[in-house]
Amino acid sequence: MKRIHLTRREVLLGGAASLFAAGVARPPRLRAAKLPEPPLLRPRVEAGKLPPMAERLPETPAVEAMEREWQQIGRHGGDLRILMGSERDLRQMTVYGYARLVGYDADLELAPDICERVEVDDGRIFTFHLRKGHRWSDGAPFTSEDFRYWWEDVANNEELSPAGPPIRLRADGELPEVSFPDATTVRFAWSARNPTFLHDLAGPRPLYLYRPAHYMKRFHKAYAEPEALQAAVQKHHQRNWAALHNYLDDLYKFDNPELPCLQPWINTTPGPGKRFIFERNPYYHRVDPDGRQLPYIDRVVVGIADPSIIPAKTGSGETDLQARYLRFDNYTFLKQAADRFPLQVRLWQPATGAKEALYPNLNVNDPVWRELLRDVRFRRALSLAIDRHEMNEVIYYGLALPGNNTVLPRSPLFKKAYRQAWAEFDLDKANALLDEIGLTERDGRGFRKMPDGRRLEIVVETAGESTEESDLLQLIGDSWKKAGIALHTNPSQREVFRRRIFSGETVMGIWKGLENGVPTAEMSPRELAPVDQYSYQWPKWGQHYQTRGRSGEPVDMEQPKRLLELYEQWRQSTEQETRTEIWHEMLSIHAERQYTLGLIANVPQPVVVHNELRNLPKEGLYNWDPGSFFGMYRLDAAFWAGERGDEKA
Amino acid sequence: MFAYTIRRIFTMIPTLIAISIIVFVIIQLPPGDYLSTYIAELQAQGEGVDQQRIDFLREQYGLDEPMWQQYLTWVTGLLQGDLGYSFEYQLPVNEVVGDRLLLTFVISVVTILFTYAVSFPIGVYTAVKQYSIGDYTLSFIGFLGLATPNFLLALVLLYFANVVFGTSIGGLMDPEYVNQPWSWGKVGSVLEHLWVPVVVIGTSGTAAMIRRLRANLLDELNKQYVITGLAKGLPPGRLLIKYPLRLAINPFISDIGNLLPQVVSGAAVVSVVLDLPTTGQMLIGALKSQDMYLAGSFLMFLATLTVIGMLLSDLALAVLDPRIRLEGKAER
Amino acid sequence: MSSSDQSQSMGGPPRGRIPHTVDDQPFDPGGDEVLTPEQERLYMASQWRMMWLKFRRHKLAVISGALLLALYLSILVSEVLAPYNLHSRFTDHIYAPPQSVHLFHEGEFVGPFVYGYEKKLNMETLEREYTSNPDDVQPLRFFCSGDSYRFWDLFQADFHLVCPAEGGTLFLLGTDRLGRDMLSRIIYGARISLTIGLLGIAISFLLGISIGGAAGYYGGWVDSTAQRSIEIVRSFPEIPLWLALSAVLPVTWSPIWVYFGITVILGLLDWPGLARAVRSKLLSLREEDFAVAAQLMGARPRRIIFRHLLPSFASHLIASATLSIPTMILGETALSFLGLGLRPPITSWGVLLSEAQNINVVALYPWLMLPVVPVIVVVLAFNFLGDGLRDAADPYR
Question: Looking at the complex, does the CB of residue C63 fall below 8 Å from at least one CB of chain B?
């Protein structure tokens, strides 16, 4: 697939290009007119309540090319059953549905989706061209008015957004100038470059730049009749109109069945409850190469069950597509179930840089620990004393990838050295380094002593959520013992765990590694720089950056300073080469300096798929950001072969 | 009798007030509040929430008011039948709870009936045929139910029911029936799912009940009038039913006070394992996420249920046992 | 015998006055009731001795008592009894099923031994398949030197009651996901699980007796307040209250302090039962003559309660306490299940059970649920013991 870069004045082509690429002669809308309606909508169209398919599509719908080897053209019909762990999980349907202004495809490349085209000028002026004739799920037109309403009446309305527009909209601290040249064009212009803007729009929890204006105006003080508004406020048990508006307009959460949206399936069941039915969006803007309006599947039935029994429920055939709440250690059980039920158990890859990694807290309060942790030789010794290979064999049947917390082989930025630097199991080297630092005195039990006489005992705090972590720590403790280091596990609670790290009380924490382990040079390297409080190895430096110096501590180590510099450079650069160079320098600094001690990555994720469900790859990536779990594989193109997808039904 | 009833009801009130204070304190004890937990969750997903929005939300939910004020708001709401507002569900608690109260009630009642139905014959048998093989065996089985941790038993039975009977895992009915109106199919499905929680929860209570019944019956059977009756030629069965049994039923009534809290709390744990849509599961979730009003109102509901249950059992006992009415104290 | 009256005539019913007869033998008041030495002992026996005799009749209680005594004593030497160290793990024998002990190999008596494992890794289902290898005879060793351990964390030693054959394995109850021997873990787990009840009982006892005693003895407003508090505490559904209270325990506490915290919480919620029993007993007993006498003699209330009243139903108290311990043990398992009690790396039966609480275990590795057996046994034993004690508690009935 052709690689498309964001450089000066380059135009991202979308629907039009693939149309031509597919070699199609007639526009999809015309072909759609000849095709039968999806079974769910047939009665409504025949009764005249809904216009026919050709008229429901925008003039230039997005075409799902279906060119990959695991894709084929399908047919309408059927129900898809999935299980979620709580009502809050309904938002996952927005993640899975993945209708975005721009989105990532199965190769992790950005392409326009809701928009027909995006023009990027100098990395700071973004012009979105919407599709003519695109409608909301209730039939009202989707135009730049929806963007205007959001920008002027929501994001910049003091009562609705007291903190102003979302932080992600700021580039260099400044807000954009937003303009609406015509009904299908929206322009965002900054004075500084905003390299992460499109990525944020394509995220699993996207940056929303629009609202269904025709629906929300009823609940806005400036547009609604005061009496009707007050009645609505009371009906929904809210405190005032602002609370009501914010309560009803969440496009992400799917908690308001009446809210029009652009996703392939919309929630029709009000909460609270245990079973939610999502029906197809009649005005969805995507089609298959034959002109059939997507999604193929008519309904998604979401069952809510306690996460602890979801593996059991999956194993008794109660779901058609499941990955959430299934863990690697459920694989054997699920495989057994696959003998009794028409299910396949596939193993997809996660994209985190490491499933678990140790985070030595460089901002720890205790001065003796601070000095020790900041000594790169100490961190290297700790890493050398971990037997990652054993972990892989014992817990993961040798299927995972031991190594550092860094990019995965799938990423174009991958280099073997990054994963393997200081990651081999070498007790002699580790002991030598520790001796070199001066930790030569030992106590009665054989553990080394710290400079102030205390036993060298590292207390690793966990969020107490998985037995996997305590198992890994058990293994680490055993091998560290041989280097004279004692390890003590302190299971805690997520919030307390975080708080203690932020405040510098924790010496070392364990958590998952890089969220995005498959980056390209175009994606932000923010996880590698001290710019986020939630980077547990340098929380105070991150806080310092985020609050612009108001709290936290400034970076006072040489290499992290360099990382910060490089990050700023990346944000300013536009050349792909520069960006790639920056990434590589940052990655090699991390590999050499071992700021996080990665343990193991690529722990396979079981994905259970019904035998007759098509258009999902056998092996894929299962990741939150980027990827949106099933989003990037376009669940709207999944269909039922066999009985369940009977089009004639 | 009337005076006694009035007196009992009056003493209930300070109890309920004290319970409400304790409940409120307990909910507030863990550090942080709903918002901080919610924010922590968001952060885990990589979603940033800025401080101003947090402060805005805090003020909206009234979480910035002083403790005593929050308490008063809640209690006055309770008295008016307004159970408060659930942050998690963004709905009034009344609407969230809805069906679940009914189901909790149903499960509790069915479990208690099951307990009675099982412990009664076993209790009688073991008392009458004391020290026999039957006595030992049945007592043993009763105790087994008491001794096995509920959650493990529930999980094993869940799996067993699925493999042997094909019952769907968890829940109170098959998924297809969930939002459907009541029909015979739905009733059958509920019964199919109901036996597991009832057996698991019920077995813990049966043992105690059996023991009580047995002990009381043994006491009675050794009394003079029984021996007199036997000597005078009354058939043993009729004798048994006419006199001692009536007196021995005493614990069944008086023990509702003991049984009810046990059943309700047992149901809470078992609901989590079996994923039953009862108050237990929701309560545990609410406690974990510090959804203040939801958790607090639930605890109050459960406690009130128990207090009223105890009141009823005291009243029933007073009716049965004149000694209590006259002397004014409850004899156990 | 006697000399008869002159007017006695032979045959027929006596007519007229019945002659006055006097026996001139020395009079022995207890003559018609001759006691055997045993009966003598019985009637002259003290209260405690009578209780013991009655208790002995209840066979089940006696067996339970002996069993519990053995279990509690075993805590002292867990390190010796367990075939392996608590933390030993064997990466080659993960999720190994239990091995059974045989005496005869191919018809010959060899002494206690186990068959070794043959292991295969099934990469299709990611399962480790173990079969018993009939050619690999591994005789057990007794009183041997095996895994080293620190005895009560005081000194290093490696003496075990039973060990596997050299280079062999002895997993009588199988292994868990890290290859740790389940039998050893259960033996060590007893330390925590059996003692957690005791501390809780102590607290509950203290509270129960003081509050119940005061309520029963003083009556009046003391009684009303106590009754109110009893009712309040009893009205709470247990589990949610434990949940709420355990959520309060600072997670930063070390596991040992969490352990104590849990026992305190369990004890705090258990005292009402005891208090009510104490109260009602006291209410009836304080009218007894001996109590009134003590009062008239000027004894202070505390002395009356503790020296005179309580001992008369101490046995009841003991029985109640014994019946409360199982609640504590089960409570600890429930809390561990909810994730609020003890957590790894501490090992208790509750922790072992919560680790077994998932579908993988039930379907694939059921031996991991075996810790439920000691829980059941101990709970049953305490119940039977308590029953026996209660029956024996009032020997005069």
Answer: no
Instruction: Kindly state the DSSP code that residue A149 receives in the 8-state scheme.
Output: I
Asked if A390 is an interface residue toward chain C (Cβ–Cβ < 8 A), one would say yes
pLDDT by residue (tens digit) across C282-325? 776 777 777 778 778 887 877 776 777 766 667 667 777 777 88
Residue in chain A closest to B56 (alpha carbons) equals: A162
- Concatenating the DSSP letter of every residue in A419-444 gives HHTT-S--HHHHHHHHHHHT---B-T
- As a whole number, mean pLDDT of residues A67-81 equals 91
Query: Which two three-digit tokens encode residue A629?
Result: 């779990």
Q: 3-class SS at A362?
A: coil
ipTM, two decimals: 0.78
Tell me the C-alpha distance between B247 and B236, whole Å: 16
Q: Quick one: DSSP state of residue A155?
A: I
Q: Estimate the crossing angle of helix B256-274 against helix B292-320, to 10 degrees.
A: 150
Alpha-carbon gap, residue C372 to B155, rounded angstroms: 13
Q: What is the pLDDT of residue C4?
A: 45
Instruction: Please give the angle made by the CA atoms of C34, C36 and C41, to the nearest 5 degrees.
Output: 115
**H or E element: which one contains C102?**
strand C102-105
Question: How distant is the alpha carbon of residue A105 from its chain centre?
Answer: 13
Task: Decide if C373 contacts C25 (C-beta within 8 A).
Answer: no
- Rounded to whole angstroms, the Cα distance separating A630 from A636 reads 10
What separation in angstroms does the CA of C179 have from each of B320, C1, C90, C371?
60, 91, 5, 16
User: Choosing among B7, B10, B26, B323, which should be mutated to test the C contact, i.e. which has the most C CBs within 10 A?
Assistant: B26
A340/B contact by beta carbon, under 8 A = no
Asked if the C-beta of C238 comes within 8 angstroms of chain B's C-beta atoms, the answer is: yes
Is pTM beyond 0.80 here? yes
Instruction: Report chain A residues whose CB lies below 8 A from the CB of C339.
Output: 464
Write out the H or E segment, with its range, that includes residue A355.
none
User: What residues of B are in contact with residue A88 (Cβ under 8 Å)?
Assistant: 88
Is the CB of A162 less than 8 angstroms away from the CB of B85? no
CB contacts of B22 in chain C (<8 Å) are 232, 236
Q: Rounded to an integer, what distance in angstroms lies between the CA atom of residue A355 and that of residue C390?
A: 57
Kindly list the distances between the CA atom of residue C188 and the CA atoms of A249, A412, C74, C95, C193, in Å, as whole numbers in the listed order: 56, 51, 10, 19, 9
Which of C237, C337, C359 shows the shortest C-beta gap to B261? C237
- Written in H, E and C, the secondary structure of B110-138 is HHHHHHHHHHHHHHHHHHHCCCCHHHHHH
Residue B136 pLDDT level (bands cut at 50, 70, 90): confident
What would the two tokens of residue C70 be? 């053995």
DSSP A135: B
Cα B5–Cα B10–Cα B16 angle in degrees, nearest 5: 120
* CA pseudo-torsion sign C79, C84, C88, C94: negative
**Cβ-count burial A176-193 (b if 16+ within 10 Å, e if not):** bebebeeebbbbbebeeb
Query: Do the beta carbons of residue B202 and residue B116 sit within 8 Å?
Result: no
Report chain A residues whose CB lies below 8 A from the CB of B169.
Answer: 309, 312-313, 316, 318
Asked if B265 reaches chain A (Cβ–Cβ under 8 Å), the answer is no
**What does DSSP assign to residue A308?**
G
- List all residues of chain A from 591 to 620 with a beta carbon under 8 Å from chain B: none
The DSSP 8-state label assigned to residue A151 in this structure reads I
Residues with Cβ < 8 Å from B13, sequence gap 6 or more? none
Tell me which chain A residues have a C-beta less than 8 angstroms from the C-beta of B89. Answer: 87, 271-272
Q: Is B310 on the interface with A (CB under 8 A)?
A: no
Considering only CB atoms, A492 lies closest to which of C124, C127, C252, namely: C252
The residue in chain B having the minimum alpha-carbon distance to the alpha carbon of residue C377 is B147
Inter-chain contacts counted by CB atoms under 8 A, chains A and B: 88
Ranges of beta strands (E only) in B188-274 are none
